[in-house]
């Protein structure tokens, strides 16, 4: 079984896509770069943590 078949990983992948779109569309321009980038990185971090935990 691969981590890609885990329900939690699939949900986190969908969440990353949703958050990425939201930060580009709904944040004010002055927050889109600094805060938006940090939000996007932290969302991707959740997905990466699931993969790392699966490997252990």
Description:
The protein has helices at 7-25, 29-32, 34-55. The model has no long low-confidence stretch (mean pLDDT 92). Helix 1 (7-25) packs antiparallel against helix 3 (34-55). The protein has three helices and no strands. By secondary structure, it is mainly α. The protein has one domain (3-55). Helices cover 80% and strands 0% of the residues.
Number of strands: 0
Strand content: under 5%
In total, the number of domains comes to 1
Mean of residue pLDDT? Answer: 92
Level of helix content? over 70%
So what's the oligomer here?
Answer: single chain
Distance between the termini: 14 Å
Task: Write the SSE topology.
Layout: H1 7-25, H2 29-32, H3 34-55
Helix pairs in contact: 1-3
Compact overview of the structure:
The protein has three helices and no strands. It has 56 residues and is mainly alpha-helical.
């Amino acid at each position: 079984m691969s981590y890609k078949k885990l329900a939690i990983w699939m949900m986190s992948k969908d969440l990353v896509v949703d958050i990425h779109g939201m930060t580009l569309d709904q944040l004010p321009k002055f927050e889109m770069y600094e805060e938006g980038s940090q939000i996007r990185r932290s969302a991707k971090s959740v997905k990466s943590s699931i993969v790392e935990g699966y490997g252990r």
